[in-house]
Amino acid sequence: MTRLKSDLECPPLTTTTKNHPTPNSNKMANARLGGSKRTLIATIGDEDSITGLLLAGTGHVTAASKKNFMVVDSSQYLTTFNILSFIHQDFKGSVLRSERGTETPVSEIQKAFDEFTTERDDIAIVLINQHVADKIRPSVDKYEAAFPALLEIPSKDHPYDPEKDSVLKRVKKLFGE
């Protein structure tokens, strides 16, 4: 393969410039935050919300294979895997079944919530779909720590209800509304 002269003149990727971060930029950000290790956003939600946030770059897997996200399946909706398997079965001549995805047990949602809010020290923000938070509402309402911050977000199929949001409830209580 012939190299062009312009290929040879490109600066290496580790060059330090004012506008481009270096590999040590994470360390510099931590120093500005007072040495905090809390740099990740954790997410508990439905497949569409998690997919969107992962595509936005929030996904992370530790060396111990711990993920900073959890996909919660609802029995009301067909999962992508089930839809694809149904289509495959249909092309093979089988009858198209109307099976539903398996619903994630509340205990698993609670376990992920506890892991993200108490066990891990690298999580700065926990995003949770409001309809998922409703399944563990007592724990969400009881959570009062500043870090990681807990935010309830809407999903594609479930609109946001400010009356259920634990953060807004506390703000209203603080201002006497």
Proportion of beta-strand residues = 5-15%
For CATH, the homologous superfamily is named as ATPase, V1 complex, subunit F
Secondary-structure content class = alpha/beta
Q: Write the H/E string, N to C.
A: HHEHEHHEHHEH
Low-confidence stretches: 87-100
Major sheet description: 4 strands, parallel
Name the shape in a single word: globular
The protein's oligomeric status is single chain
What is the radius of gyration computed over CA atoms, rounded to a whole number of angstroms? 22 Å
- Helical region count? 8
Which strand order do you get reading across the main beta sheet? 2-1-3-4
Mean pLDDT: 76
CATH fold-level label: Rossmann fold
- Could you give the distance between the termini? 71 Å
CATH class: Alpha Beta
The percent range for helix content is: 25-40%
> Number of DSSP strands?
4
InterPro entries: ATPase_V1-cplx_f_g_su, ATPase_V1-cplx_fsu_euk, ATPase_V1_fsu_sf
Keywords: Hydrogen ion transport, Ion transport, Transport
Region (Disordered): 1-26
Pfam families: ATP-synt_F
Features:
single chain, 177 residues, alpha/beta, Rossmann fold, 4-stranded parallel sheet, 8 helices
Can you put this structure into words, describing what you see?
This protein has 177 residues and is α/β, with parallel strands linked by helices. It has a single domain (37-174), classed as 3-Layer(aba) Sandwich (Rossmann fold). The protein contains 8 helices and 4 strands, in the order ααβαβααβααβα. It has helices at 5-8, 25-32, 47-55, 80-91, 106-119, 130-133, 137-142, 166-174, and strands at 40-45, 69-71, 123-129, 149-153. It has a 4-stranded parallel sheet, with helices on both faces. It is globular and about 45 Å long. The N and C termini lie far apart (71 Å).
